[in-house]
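hey so i finally got around to running both of the ones u sent me last week. sorry it took forever, my laptop kept dying halfway thru and i had to restart like 3 times lol. anyway pasting them below in the order u listed, first the sequence line then the structure token line for each. didnt double check formatting much so if smth looks off just lmk and ill redo it

first one:
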Amino acid sequence: MQLEIITPEKKVYSGKVNVVQVPGTKGLFEVLEYHAPIISTLEKGRVKIVEGSAESFFHIDGGVIEVKNNRVIILAESIKG
């Protein structure tokens, strides 16, 4: 699936991934390929990205995630990678 992580300043990440784990308002949740459409708010915490066998992490200060048509967009207030 395609993932984009965007802050008000710039696009931080863009690429194909297998799994995205985010800090939702009610706890951590994962998005896999062909996930049902969803929009959710995000809390301050860690975003985990899995590309094949490689893992990447970003720390966000909250935001919003949208999942639709095998595409994930994370709009983060600010980010540390």
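and the second one:
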Amino acid sequence: MIIQPIKTRVFREGEDLLAFIIRYFKKIPERSVIIVTSKIVALAERRTAVAKDIQTKEKLIRAESEFAMPTKYVWLTVKDGMVMASAGIDESNACGKLILLPRDCFKTAGWLRKKLQVKYKVKKLGVLITDSRTIPLRAGITGVSLGYAGFKGIKDYRGKPDIFGRKFHFSRTDVADSLATAAVLVMGEGKEQQPLATITGAPIEFCQKIKRDELRIDIKDDMYQPLFSNLPKITK
């Protein structure tokens, strides 16, 4: 698998996202995945805000979250079925503003895929919109998928035998987040200025339609649920 980050100029708020992407791709080969950081998607949608004080920011976090509680360092929140810090609201590389998460990354990924397929005359193409997340009890961040199109986001091993013939009962590989983590590693989180990347040679299954809820787990079925069952809820 080869990941190629793409250095660009600074993306401006309200700019045409598709035109910006096309500017940096002379061609796109078949069986590629185009990576787009969620920050430029949000900027294209003008999903920004100015927090005049801490109270304004906290109100915004609550409004953007399905669940929110303050912790030592950040607000622990649930948004779009994912646990994240402060509803994904980011202050880095934001020119003094707060950048919110995009409205619907699955919809945007699907739209971009169709436009790029036509522009570059490719059939098997994936688009993946990424963000970064922390993992409980681990230092540092990894990549995460906020939305994707053109490939299956999960590989299911359940019911299949392992190398000794024993059938898997629970094993599934999170393809979308694995690709996002690999991409974020090479794209960087600082001043690298690489909001785009391509992945070729990935061991994935391309498809026309995806199941946007295939990676979601209901809290009552999540193996970590006992850790959260006694947490107090904070309503909006």
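quick thing i noticed on the 2nd:
The helical segments are 17-23, 38-44, 54-64, 105-120, 175-187, 225-228.
anyway thats it, ttyl
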